[in-house]
Description:
The strands form three sheets. The protein has a five-stranded mixed sheet, with helices on both faces. The longest helix is centred in the last third of the chain and has 27 residues, at 222-248. The protein has two domains: 4-115 and 288-325, ATPase, nucleotide binding domain (Nucleotidyltransferase, domain 5, 2-Layer Sandwich); 124-283, ATPase, nucleotide binding domain (Nucleotidyltransferase, domain 5, 2-Layer Sandwich), CATH 3.30.420. It has ten helices and twelve strands. The protein has helices spanning 43-65, 84-101, 110-116, 157-167, 174-183, 206-217, 222-248, 263-276, 285-288, 293-304; strands at residues 4-9, 14-21, 26-33, 72-80, 105-109, 127-131, 136-142, 145-151, 198-199, 202-203, 252-256, 279-281. By secondary structure, it is of the alpha/beta class. The relative contact order is 0.19. The site of adenosine-5'-triphosphate has 23 residues, from α4 and α5.
Amino acid sequence: MNKYILGIESTAHTFGVAVVDFEGDILSNVKDSYVTETGGLIPLEVRKHHRRVADEVFKKALNDAGVEEKEIEVIAFSNAPGLAPCLLEGMDFSKRLAERLNVPVVCVNHCIAHLEIGDSVGAKDPVMLYASGANTQIIAYEAGKYRVFGETLDLGVGNFIDTFARYAGLGFPGGPKIQELAEECKTKDKLIELPYSIKGMDVAFSGLQTKLKNLRDKGVDIRDLSYSIQEIIFAMLVEATERALAHTGKKELLLGGGVACNSRLQKMCKIMCKERGVKFFCPDKSLLVDNAGMIGYLGLKMFKAGIFEKDLEKVDIAPRERTDDVEVSWK
Ligand code: ATP
Ligand code: FE2
């Protein structure tokens, strides 16, 4: 009989369930994300959303994979980091299911899952640029742990883009719209001067936000602004990432997070990698954004290394767990 692990994601706006077989193949990866016009995120509302969609997402994941629930051997869920109400919903769902099926549970760190999924596209020991809505971090493995070499000092790059896009009346999510507008820019040779804020391997965006709002108020063309925003913020991210590559001596770059879907960011990363003789890896969009496939994928590695819990009383969420809090004993 084949063996399967269930992955469950619920750290923020996405509730996802995936079925992964014991070879590490992701057989299904279903999600339902809470979205609002404004992009605002009220944790208790998101929790209600997750509760409402959970059973349906779970059934679809089983269906898509052609697997019955009694074939599930273990459940992996993202217990950290994230919004407590969202994490609790994912944990309660996982525990109820684990009890019913009498299977153990694996607690997975969401950020590390973004990195470990790179292995499925061939990245063995990368520096990861994790650029999503809430997170902007440069992470790599060193001496038994995943370490954060650089990060945003204020808000995540996706939230930064979304905030400006909302201000400019572009709706939510802003990232894809800013990309589209940037591609329509006619004055690509005339970059608008914007604050470039990088300290070592850390970046900051809030000064830039103020300046952009001023320029928008003065009537600067939104296509020109979009183009310059992308050039500046992605140059900051690429420069910080390049420093992390130089610092660690690693020869692989991996992208993760929703903002990594941006083709301009991907292109800038590729150019930098080519110049440095570094291999570039970018998973499919479905594995870049928040998803349960990556949770199941890492959960499987941890389970095989003996990291799981049978006593559900001992399983808990860890909303503020940092990437380097996790002992990486599965590698
Ligand atoms: P996390 O919990 O990991 O921080 P998240 O909840 O913010 O993740 P993701 O799905 O990883 O969610 O990413 C969503 C973000 O990605 C949004 O801010 C969105 O604007 C941005 N985004 C999506 N596509 C693009 C794109 N083509 N260019 C730039 N940004 C994009
Ligand atoms: Fe994420």
